[in-house]
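To fix ideas, we quote verbatim a fold written out as tokens:
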Amino acid sequence: MKTKNIIACLFLLFTTQVVSAQNNAEALIRVLVNQIKSHQNVEMSFNYQISPKGEKLDEAEKGHAWLQGEAYKVEMADQQTISDGKTIWTYFIDAEEVMVSNASEGTDNTPLKVLTTLDENYVATLTGIDAKGIATVELANPAGQYKRVTLKIDGKKSELKSADVYFEDGNKFVINVEEMKFDQKLDDKFFTFDTKKHPKVDVIDMR
């Protein structure tokens, strides 16, 4: 399913300033962008759910993600996606397979492809702010695979709280952020896939 790179896409969305905006959505997103860009790296723990074509949401699963510059790592229940900015390793845990591809030649659902079209296709609109200061921002893209993204942002703390991602095929991906940490000490090889630690994994090199 194309939902597996969503976390990385959202991370990268907030480290760029290419989103077109209306009303106060632009100011809200820029504050969030500046908050994240001021740190060396970002670590996020979250839970996620998938709703296939409008059906009831699946049971929530735990996930973890890190972003440092162009490098990122996303750990989910059945899959890990790792990139050092040049190479992407997609590790399918149950199948014991890892697919290797160039970051610059990824499919349309990779972070790079999403970023290169945000300024052309997405429009951000602030639709409301509740009594606790949680703002709702809609990112609309009628022509894209991510048809619509609904973000919940804590305006007081400049923190992303949740994201509902709606696909053109009717699938829905729900992310709830539990905690965000900054400036963690990460090893040089943290954003690479170590085949020595996974000797039984079948490596499929797509480059």
